[in-house]
Amino acid sequence: DKPVQTYSSGMQSKLGFAFTAILKTDIILVDEVLSVGDSHFKKKSFNKMKELIAERNRTVVIVSHNTSTIQEICEKVIWLHDGDIKMIGPTEEVADLYEEFMEQY
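The structure assignment produced for this chain is given below.
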């Protein structure tokens, strides 16, 4: 009964993810949505994201700083730094170099 702009940012993210999860689109863009909410929501949304990615006729682009999440659900990664592409490649390879870079940064 309340306008969406009165919802917390976390609730808005949950609502947006719910819409994304039920729509049949060719491309899905997800920005840090897997990092909001309580542990139950995180687990549920993570499993749904894995299900959406498994559909091979769909492209899913996930923006995240959580390398463990990226390593678990992504096949290919684009590493951006200061607006520049640092590397594109297999997740494990790129994530390892990203982690090394961030330790020295």
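Interim note for the steering committee: The radius of gyration is 15 Å. The beta strands are 27-31, 59-63, 76-81, 84-90.
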